[in-house]
Amino acid sequence: MVYNQFKPLAFVVIFALFFSKALGTPDVNLEIQNLKTTVSQLNNVILNHNDKLVELYSHLKQHEITISVLQNDLQQKHAATTSGSVYIRWGRKDCPSNGTDIVYTGMGAGGHYGNIGRNANPLCIPHDPEVGQKNTDGAYGAVFGMEYQTNSFGKHMKGKDVPCAVCRTERPTFLMIPGHTQCKDGWTKEYSGHLMSGHYAHAGSSNYLCVDGAPDSLVNGTHNALSGYLLYGVVSYCTPLHCLPYKHNTLFNCVVCSK
Fold this sequence. Notes:
- This protein has 2 helices and 10 strands.
- The chain has helices at 2-24, 28-82; strands at residues 85-90, 101-110, 123-126, 144-148, 163-169, 174-178, 188-197, 209-212, 229-233, 253-258.
- Strands 1, 2, 3, 4, 5, 6, 7, 8, 9 and 10 form a 10-stranded mixed beta sheet that branches.
- Keywords: Signal.
């Protein structure tokens, strides 16, 4: 390394001084010995610097590894904060304990089941609204509470108000699979439960919701109001639905998965 670079120069210096002293100084051997001592000292200095360079190079490599680890960690944290998805867990006041964060808890709501103009899309409205101004127009949409209209999925649940929780997962994609209680390979199960919707004979349209298999209810709700967004169990109806594998008049399960 550095020593090898200075080695030829050292020999040149020795020979130059040797011939110079040989021409003008009688004590040539003493001068040669002094030169050897000087060169030896220089070699030791060079070797010491060489060892320090090797040590510094080793430290540099260690720092590069540390920086690489920190960069990877930062990228993972950045990806976790810039990606992800949000879904509503119907029928519960909490989110699954699988690394999912709760955004807020609320209550299920939507249009009245008897209104043909109601929006099919239900809402999870928070318990702490920022109330808007008073309506002075005769034309408006309307939001009512949401109620269970069956005891199939919980004792004495019929007529009780439906809670909900808005949950965030770091996994960017989620979907609801009707007719399943488990996710496909490679997917993470958020929760499973029962498929519910509005009554098939009601005028207002509705969406299919996956309500948690261990449903809860709101304590201070307006029970048995029989108005608003009503939820019923969803059954398979053969012809034209293919049976088998489905069976007539059996309730649909569901599962919400993320990846």
